[in-house]
Amino acid sequence: MLRESGVATRLVATSFMVVVAGCLVISHGIAPAGGAEQVWDYSQLTPHDLGLGREAVYNLPAVPAIGFVSPGIGEEWVEGTTVAITWQATGPICWVRLYYYGGRCPLGGRSRGSFGVVIADNVPHTNSVQWTVPWIDATCFRLRIAGFDSSGQRLADFERTVRFRPRELVGLPDTCIAIIKRKQRLYYYKDGQIVRMHLVSTAGRGHSTPLMKPGDYSSRRGAMGQVFRKSPNPRSRRYDVTMPYWLAITSTGSHGIHGTSPNLYYRLGRPASHGCIRQHRKDARILYELVPVGTPGYIF
User: Fold this and answer.
1) What single DSSP character describes residue 80?
2) Residue 13 contacts by C-beta under 8 Å, 6 or more apart in sequence?
3) pLDDT in tens, 238-292
């Protein structure tokens, strides 16, 4: 079975030869980038050696075998786009099953369970399937393919991590905070990577959380669209409540990102605030420590 490890060596689909327990095997699945056919004697390698690439090899089968061509290693897919999932396989594989799975956005560091969805089943082995990427409640997911013979016996499988980006977050600066009201989620990007994803509550009925981007201005709220200042535990005079780990996203302080009361955690993930962006206090503390003043802020 072929799986990923954590080193940045790029692999491509090509042909290669492998010597396994003294038997020469020709495969067309996954091989090191750059190359012509190679002969590898895996009988002499340790488990550490087998894990050196981005694709580590465990229980390497002779044939059959299967592996993704697309998505590539480290690839990011955007919500709403139609992508081609392509693969290479050897052996008597007649049809494949494709599915994805992962862990849902946690709340305060605690799991909210997992998801698993079949993309296509009993698909003829044609090396390609088109898929429109849905919204996914995670920053990444595992895409898995399994190959079966004509009798329905599973012969080989493979999986790869794919990074996920909501459609609103295309084209943003490499470092920023972004809130998506339709999904009640907050994202913190740093150096082009999602560092944090939180459940939040924006304004409930009768209140307003304004859309914003850096450079926006409102006569009521002043400048908008960045972290103007931080305060660890200010108090709202209007609502007579404390707002732990406050990040002001308007210059007047009319709106900000902050922790909410534990008795309101059950409302996170749906509109419920008076206009600010509420979070679990554990999430709010981590974000507060990570985000410097001046960080661009977006609300969609």
Assistant:
1) T
2) 28, 29, 30, 31, 67, 69, 88
3) 777 889 999 999 999 999 999 999 999 999 999 999 999 999 999 999 999 999 9
0.70 cut: is pTM over it?
Answer: yes
The whole-angstrom separation of Cα 204 and Cα 292 is 28
Are 53 and 31 in contact by the 8 Å Cβ rule? The answer is no
In angstroms, the CA 247 to CA 186 distance is 13
Q: Which two tokens stand for residue 66?
A: 């299967």
Give the pair of three-digit tokens for residue 300: 């969609």
CATH for 169-299 is: 2.40.440.10
Instruction: Report the alpha-carbon distance of residue 216 to residue 201 in Å, rounded.
Output: 22
Please tell me the distance from the alpha carbon of residue 249 to that of residue 213, in angstroms, as a whole number. Answer: 10
| Contact (Cβ atoms closer than 8 angstroms) between residue 263 and residue 244 | no
Q: Where are the chain's structural domains?
A: 2-165, 169-299
The distance from CA 52 to its chain's CA centroid, rounded to whole angstroms, is: 24
Q: Give the chain's mean pLDDT.
A: 84
**How many residues would you count in the chain?**
300
Distances (CA, A) of 285 to 197, 200, 273: 13, 14, 19
- Fold annotation for 2-165: Immunoglobulin-like (2.60.40)
Whether the upstream peptide bond of residue 271 has omega within 30° of 0, thus cis, is no
